[in-house]
Amino acid sequence: MLGDYRIEGSRASEIAASVERGVGSGALAPGQHLPPMRELARELGVNPHTVAAAYRTLRERGVIETAGRRGTRVRPRPATTARGTLRIEAPAGVRDIGEGNPDPTLLPRLSDALAAAAREYDAAPGLYGLSAVDEEFADLVRAALDADGVPAGPVAVASGSLDVIERVLGAHLRPGDAVAVEDPGWGSVLDLVPALGLRVVPVRLDDDGPLPGEVERALRDGARALIVTDRAQNPTGAAVGAARAAELRAVLAAYPEVLLVEDDHGHGFVDLPVHPLAGSTRHWAFVRSVAKACGPDFRVAAFTGDEVTVDRVTGRQQLGPGWVSRLLQRAVVHLWRSGSVDRAALARAYGERRDALIRALEARGVAAHGRSGMNVWVPVADETGVVARLLHAGWAVAPGARFRVVSGPAVRLTVSSLTPADVEQLAEAVAAAAGPVAVRSYG
Fold first, then answer.
1. pLDDT higher than threshold 50 for residue 79
2. What's the order of all strands across the beta sheet hosting 156-158?
3. Could you tell me how many helices (H) and strands (E) the chain has, helices first?
4. Whose CA is closest to 203, among 229, 166, 177?
5. Cα 291 to the center of its chain, rounded Å
6. What is the chain's Cα-based Rg?
7. Is residue 230 within 8 Å of 239, Cβ to Cβ?
8. Secondary structure class of 78 (helix, strand, coil)
9. For residue 433, what are the contacts with CB-CB under 8 A and spacing of at least 6?
10. Global pTM value
11. Percent of the chain with pLDDT over 70
């Protein structure tokens, strides 16, 4: 039934991860049938309930489907956006704090910046043959990178952080390669890696970012790339501090051929300093998106890296979209030059709301994580039950299944639109939904 591929594991999370690895590597093809639960349980020497739990997790993540008497099989279209479908639709009267959006009232007004870019375009229209990166945009980006200690490298532009990550992985890796990814981590990355035919290797983290021992284990076991979020880690709010960065650099120095990808999307709305890992390995990329600070519809992300990586990415980019609109780049320049994007004010606003919610939860016996950014991560014992009870109480939250591989159940709360009154009401609802026992670790 499975050919040469053997599903492994003694726990439900391990069995589910083994199937996901098979799907990601192509060893388990779309439409391929999986063994019946009792048969697989006998083969693995585990209780059938353990296999049932693994299959349930895989169904929730969109990796497999149950087709009645035809049994269980890998979905005909494997999980390219499966985690994105694990969202809760907020009906009328329910507050949606699950989508991860910034506060619209804190986004800059665009009319002046877009008008200024349009006037410049009227005077000198953009034509074929121009540089893909606006010169002033590149200068501003490079100056900010220099100030933060990011190593020298050419500046390029793509359509968002995920676009950069995809292009960088594609420039260096081949199907079947393993990629070390934070767990819990950004659901889009957890979907993207297997969609590229790569294998996800989950790396546990705490409030200071990836645990050095976990990273060392992943690299020792053959991971060819590592993706790290420097600040405002989604979903946990983790931020890599100075001590943790030094430890991670020491680990990476022993694996110079590993591809390092750093996502610093928090640059525009977080006031914690960044401690870049870039330069610890031979090939690396460091990306900053403007989505959270300027608005998600600004599909502009600047990145730098070693010359080989940037050259490969931009060379391939020229054969597809070509470049990111210089009109958008100019509009971002005007937003930055005018002071319309007030990083300190954004960090203060989101920080006050995030910290207030964490304090309110802790006062009710519920531990939560959120060192930076606009999200709070709440580990729970019964994720599905908590999500359902919160929806009944008037709050649509993000299920933790969107963001995890083997880490424990949790829910993600986005604080961007919360008022002080909302904070107390939400904390009360979460405490009632989660029950009296606080789960204090990432799982």
1. no
2. 156-158, 301-305, 283-289, 259-263, 225-229, 178-182, 199-203
3. 15, 16
4. 229
5. 13
6. 22
7. yes
8. coil
9. 385, 386, 389, 390, 393
10. 0.81
11. 93
